[in-house]
């Protein structure tokens, strides 16, 4: 393994979503990531996390995979139920920060993982969830297929991701905030403000709610549904892996 120090120059991903650049960008912002998200989302990130946890409905005895878990903020919410939670992320820096903060929680483990080639057995989890990470995957359809593979028959998928406001008036206000206000706020609170330029680009490029639902169905999931959070800034998609046919 190379012993050369990671560059301290700001690392900015782009819509090519090169895995090395994406993971490098998140490595650099890991320490202040949760604080920055709370500031830039005007506190809504906590409400979105609560909605996601309720949709997952974790229970003791379940095994849950939390993909793109970052520093584990969402994973901790799930682990409080007593479920066994695996917090997985592509970024070594995020995983290291998560272990530093939450490594003492006995039913929570951290693993580095590529969403398009998950290092888990078939049918390993009762629920797979991913929050604000599918958009950053270079092959999101492949990632949805991998999530399907590692979910038990009858298990569930919960995807929380930025989406598109349904109201034109609100969409205009949201666009103004993202294009004019957020870059200034990012410069004030983030160690890598350029990373949040990518955030804007990736949100604009991401498909709308019905299109993501179609991708999920194409991966094999059934009972696909979604609900909008904060006027459609975020959408919470849910689906089920068909139960195995009786022998």
UniProtKB/TrEMBL annotation:
One of its GO terms (molecular function) is demethylmenaquinone methyltransferase activity. Pfam families: Ubie_methyltran. It comes from Microbacterium protaetiae. It catalyses: a 2-demethylmenaquinol + S-adenosyl-L-methionine = a menaquinol + S-adenosyl-L-homocysteine + H(+). Methyltransferase required for the conversion of demethylmenaquinol (DMKH2) to menaquinol (MKH2). Belongs to the class I-like SAM-binding methyltransferase superfamily. MenG/UbiE family. It is an enzyme of class 2 (transferase). Keywords: Menaquinone biosynthesis, Methyltransferase, S-adenosyl-L-methionine, Transferase. This is Demethylmenaquinone methyltransferase. One of its GO terms (biological process) is menaquinone biosynthetic process. NCBIfam families: MenG_MenH_UbiE, PRK00216.1-2, PRK00216.1-5. InterPro entries: SAM-dependent_MTases_sf, UbiE/COQ5_MeTrFase, UbiE/COQ5_MeTrFase_CS. PROSITE patterns: SAM_MT_UBIE, UBIE_1, UBIE_2. It comes from the Bacteria. S-adenosyl-L-methionine binds at residues 71, 89, 114-115, 131. Its EC number is 2.1.1.163. Pathway: Quinol/quinone metabolism; menaquinone biosynthesis; menaquinol from 1,4-dihydroxy-2-naphthoate: step 2/2.
């Amino acid at each position: 393994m190379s012993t050369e120090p990671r560059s301290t120059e700001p690392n900015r991903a782009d819509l090519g979503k090169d895995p090395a650049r994406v993971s490098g960008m998140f490595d650099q912002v890991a320490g202040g990531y949760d604080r920055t998200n709370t500031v830039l989302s005007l506190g809504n990130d906590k409400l979105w996390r609560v909605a996601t946890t309720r949709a997952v409905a974790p229970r003791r005895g379940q095994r849950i995979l939390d993909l793109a878990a970052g520093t584990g903020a969402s994973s901790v919410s799930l682990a409080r139920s007593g479920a066994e939670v695996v917090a997985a992320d592509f970024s070594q820096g995020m995983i290291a920060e998560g272990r530093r903060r939450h490594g003492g929680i006995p039913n929570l483990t951290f693993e580095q993982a590529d969403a398009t080639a998950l290092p888990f057995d078939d049918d390993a989890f009762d629920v797979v969830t991913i929050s604000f990470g599918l958009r950053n995957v270079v092959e999101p359809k492949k990632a949805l297929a991998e999530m399907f593979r590692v979910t038990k028959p009858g298990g569930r998928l919960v995807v929380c991701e930025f989406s598109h406001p349904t109201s034109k008036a609100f969409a205009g206000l949201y666009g103004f905030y993202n294009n004019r206000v957020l870059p200034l706020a990012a410069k004030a609170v983030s160690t890598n403000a350029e990373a949040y330029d990518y955030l804007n680009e990736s949100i604009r490029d991401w498909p709308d709610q019905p299109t993501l639902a179609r991708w999920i169905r194409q991966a094999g999931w059934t009972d696909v549904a979604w609900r909008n959070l904060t006027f459609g800034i975020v959408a919470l998609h849910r689906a089920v892996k068909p139960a195995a046919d009786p022998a």
